[in-house]
Write a structure and sequence with these properties.
Elements (H helix, E strand, L loop, with lengths): L1 H30 L3 H14 L4 H13 L3 H11 L8 H12 L3 H12 L8 H12 L5 H14 L4 H13 L3 H14 L4 H13 L3 H14 L4 H17 L4 H17 L5 H14 L2 H14 L4 H13 L3 H14 L6 H15 E5 L5 E5 L1 H17 L8 H9 L3 H11 L8 H14 L12 H17 L4 H12 L5 H20 L2 H4 L2 H18 L4 H14 L4 H9 L1
Antiparallel strand pairs: 1-2
Keywords: Repeat, Signal, TPR repeat
Protein name: Cytochrome c-type biogenesis protein CcmH/NrfG
InterPro entries: TPR-like_helical_dom_sf (IPR011990), TPR_2 (IPR013105), TPR_rpt (IPR019734)
Length: 567
């Protein structure tokens, strides 16, 4: 009987070890971003070990990673009934509450998860800390409170230290994050995620060469660790953006390394979608369209596939397909839209609204379907409101209309672009907004007068240019020109005078060589003549002085000669 008892205990110990190993295998698959493999392991564990609550909890967390909230909630609720560690599932339900803005419900669930903790327990605090970080609007300070509780109980646990690194990094404390990641890897050098994050911090400081070396070092230890290839891909992508001379070469390396990463995942729909997101960043739209069509074979109803089809169709010169795909995505699915969805829909509409024909003599004629164009601009505006970074994408669109001399349409695009003062094109977009407003209103039909609101918008645009670059001389002269169109407005006329005088000052201060340029000589004559005309009724001596300066540059200028005679 004693011998039988010994073998029974040994068998039970072996069984517990096998279970732990299986759960760890699932966690390792998740860390390697092999989600389908992890789900298969976890579902098997749930079927064979339904009394182990952590199986449900880890699977529910994986569902949340994949944005499958309904599946996660069902899994957590089943996990609550497990005999062992079922209360961990309250943490998952609390995370769902946080994501839905229910902080009271989240606290209640977190309290239930920690109610029966023993002195040596710490994982509950760690997972609550992660819950605060994993939501759409992370609260890193709340996460740090929980994670430091876990650290107080188990100061050298690698996963606690890894989580602390994530929280410090999210909170902007890079030094503490670096220290926590390093300590995590020192505590357990199998936690490659910690070493990976050290490289991520290096990449964030734009030390791309050093970051690449750090990721290569991980692959030297474990050549099949897929996330390292993903980070190399993203490093090359950022490197390309910061080194225009090497943009094409680095972008190519980015795509190649992402393909290596994909080969080490499970080619599931989820991993294909991550790949599609990266193809959007690297602007490989031919590959994106191919990937979207492959995804559609796996899941014909998934709304995100419509997004990728819409993006790639626009970039591959098919705006009709873009409008169809993105309208279906935005109106027929429950998917949460992002700013880029509306940006692409708007760009497709404005493109479709434009018709350009070329006559036999080589002259082009452009027409615009104004209602469709206006609808497109409204979509673009909505996209920028949702994500101000989308303003960076509008420069080329506005320039296309400007170059076709469709100035009012160009102004409508640039007006949206300039709503984001942090846009990398803010100065350029403001200049062209003011330009377009002027050229769109300088030759109105007889009887029409310029709208003062348009002049006000142009003033703001040129003021933004002048604030950022006070020596941009054309900003002054175009501001003077558009204000001159309001002939009966004393404030506008004063702005005209001020800006012509500022143009003269700025060019003069640049030196004789700049003044002598033919284009500037012509503008000096314009400025002197307009200033002379303005002062002709109130200060004849000053007016004569300006006309004489114009004639000193161009003795045959008719405006100056004839007005001087009248004076």
């Amino acid at each position: 009987m004693n011998k039988l008892k010994f073998f029974s205990i040994a068998f039970l110990a072996f069984g517990a070890g096998a279970y732990a190993q299986d759960l760890e295998q699932a966690k390792k698959a998740i860390d390697a971003e092999q989600y389908e493999k992890a789900k298969t392991i976890l579902k098997t564990l749930i079927n064979t070990k339904a009394d182990e609550g952590k199986n449900f909890f880890v699977l529910g967390n994986l569902y949340l990673t994949q944005k499958l909230e309904d599946s996660a909630k069902v899994t957590y609720e089943k996990g609550l009934t497990a005999k062992k560690d079922g209360t961990f599932n309250y943490i998952g339900l609390g995370q769902i509450d946080l994501d839905n803005g229910n902080t009271v419900g989240a606290k209640s669930n977190f309290d239930k998860a920690t109610a029966d903790m023993r002195k040596k327990d710490f994982e509950q605090f760690m997972y609550i800390g992660r819950a605060y970080m994993n939501v759409e609007k992370p609260d890193y300070k709340a996460a740090l409170v929980q994670l430091n509780k876990a650290k107080a109980v188990q100061p050298m646990d690698a996963q606690v230290l890894l989580s602390l690194g994530d929280a410090y990094k999210g909170d902007g404390n890079v030094n503490e994050a670096y220290s926590a990641y390093r300590n995590s890897f020192d505590a357990d050098n199998s936690v490659l995620r910690a070493k990976l994050q050290l490289g991520v911090i290096t990449k964030g400081s734009k030390a791309f060469k050093e970051a690449k070396a750090a990721f290569d070092n991980i692959l030297a230890t474990n050549p099949t660790y897929g996330p390292a290839y993903r980070e190399i891909a993203e490093t090359y992508y950022l490197w390309a953006l910061n080194d225009k001379a090497q943009y094409a070469a680095y972008n190519k390396l980015a795509i190649e390394n992402y393909q290596k990463y994909m080969s080490l995942t499970d080619y599931s729909l989820d991993s294909r979608m991550r790949h599609a997101d990266f193809l959007v960043l690297t602007k490989d739209y031919a590959a994106l369209e191919k990937e979207a069509n492959e995804m559609q074979k796996l899941d014909k109803v998934n709304p995100r596939i419509l997004r990728y089809l819409g993006y790639s169709a626009f970039e591959n010169k098919n705006p009709d397909a873009t409008i169809t795909a993105l309208n279906d995505f935005l109106t027929k699915s429950n998917a949460k839209p992002i700013g880029r969805d509306y940006l692409y829909l708007g760009m497709a509409k404005t493109t479709k609204a434009l018709t350009t024909t070329t006559a036999a003599d080589g002259k082009t004629d452009s027409k615009v379907d104004q209602p469709l164009f206006d609808s497109g601009v409204a979509d673009i505006k909505k996209g920028v409101e949702m994500d101000p970074a989308m303003a960076n994408e509008l420069n080329d669109i506005g320039k296309k209309f400007f170059d076709l001399k469709l100035y009012n349409q160009a102004a409508a695009i640039y007006e949206v672009a300039t709503t984001n003062p942090n846009s990398r094109n803010f100065l350029y977009d403001n200049f062209y907004l003011g330009y377009a407003l002027y050229f769109g209103n300088v030759n109105l039909e007889e009887g029409q007068k310029i709208d003062p609101i348009i002049v006000s918008k142009a003033n703001t645009a040129f003021d933004n240019v002048i604030a950022a670059s006070p020596t941009t001389q054309d900003a002054y002269i175009y501001k003077a020109r558009i204000n001159s169109l309001l002939e009966d407005d004393a404030v506008a006329q004063a702005e005209m005078v001020k800006n012509y005088e500022e143009f003269i000052r700025v060019v003069t201060e640049k030196g004789a060589e700049e003044v002598a340029k033919p284009a500037n000589q012509t503008k000096f004559v314009e400025a002197y003549n307009n200033l002379g005309i303005h002062f002709a009724k109130k200060d004849k001596a000053k007016a004569r002085e300006y006309f004489q300066k114009a004639l000193a540059i161009d003795p045959n200028d008719e405006t100056a000669k004839s007005t001087l005679k009248l004076l």
